[in-house]
Design a protein that fits this description.
Number of strands: 0
Shape: elongated
Structural class: mainly alpha
Strand content: under 5%
Largest sheet: none
Number of helices: 3
Distance between the termini: 52 Å
Helix content: 55-70%
Radius of gyration: 16 Å
Mean pLDDT: 92
Low-confidence stretches: none
């Protein structure tokens, strides 16, 4: 259930079950941090799917770029 074959169709049930397990896990945050740090491309880690992790990384990169631009603008 933590590594569903796809992210659509019947696999949605497996994903929901995996996320339910993650919901009560004491190391959920560490699991997610590990997945992000090691670029885990497949499976449910820390209660997130592959797409959710990709979105999180993309949003973090955008925040960092925005912060860099704002910082550069102050010193220009």
């Amino acid at each position: 259930m933590f590594f569903p074959v796809s992210s659509v169709g019947p696999a949605q049930e497996d994903i929901a079950k995996a996320k339910a397990v993650c919901g009560s896990c004491q190391v959920r945050r560490q699991c997610l941090q590990f997945a992000l740090a090691t670029h885990q491309m497949y499976g449910v880690w820390g209660g997130t799917t592959e797409e959710e992790r990709r979105l999180r990384v993309r949003e973090q990169r955008e925040r960092e770029r925005d912060a860099e631009r704002a910082s550069a603008g102050r010193y220009a």
